[in-house]
Amino acid sequence: MQTANKYLSLIKFSHTIFALPFAMIGFFLAIQSTNHQMDWIKLLLVTLCMVFARSAAMAFNRYADQDIDAKNERTKIREIPSGTLLSKSVLIFTIFNAILFILCTYFINPICFYLSPVALLIILGYSYTKRFSAFAHFILGIGLSLAPIGAYLAVTGVFNIIPLIFSAIVLFWVAGFDIIYALQDESFDKTLKLHSIPSWLGKKNALKVSDAAHLFTGSLILFLGYYAHFGLLYWIGSLIFVFLLAYQHKLVKPNDLSKINLAFFTTNGIASVVFAIFVIADLYWKV
Questions:
Q1: Which CATH fold topology does 2-284 show?
Q2: Positive or negative: CA dihedral 245, 249, 250, 252
Q3: Region 264-278 average pLDDT
Q4: Residue-wise pLDDT tens digits, 141-160
Q5: pLDDT higher than 70, residue 72
């Protein structure tokens, strides 16, 4: 049990809450907008794909960044730098989860199986992007944005514009809040010549970029509501989501990062779950 807790801490398992609700949106959108019947086995496989993919991505991030983490006061307590887990063990854990992810896609359908290496390339490759690009936040966004379209593909086997818009919502939402989180390491990133929006533009301008990303997120949510003819429950969920986006920007200031964990973890976790509940409810019960 103690070893299991170490790995759960390594991958920050509770943070699966960011993307998993959007995978559920993609899944139930596919069920309700097509002639496909509810398949509980496929829902389980989609959920397992989310868990295994994210576990592989987080573990590989810790493996790739172990030397960087050891030099950062904020991150040197992480599992590899602190000696809680061995570097080799974390790499094996990464490979194990990547294999399980691919195996799950095999039992879903051919297109998910064929695209699984592409998904892994994106979510694992993100770990190296801050070494050469300040837009690493948006690569992370792309990785998490695979959730709604991936779940939709799991059911239908075909692409559709509506889940792709949900994916775009996730992309800019994640990029926006990851920029906020990266404010903590602005000075450290400059010292090690690592790339991020805060280390490139400074805290004040980085927050403006985050503002713009979340304004665009809100615009996409509003556009999708009109485009897809969603009902009242969707709009209620959208208003709550947008309010929580605005609220996290009130919590964080260039000269005050004391509430950054509340803004990053709590607010965004609540936002994704509440939004998904209202969207899925709207798919089944039009008000």
A1: Tetracycline Repressor; domain 2 (1.10.357)
A2: positive
A3: 91
A4: 999 999 999 999 999 999 99
A5: yes
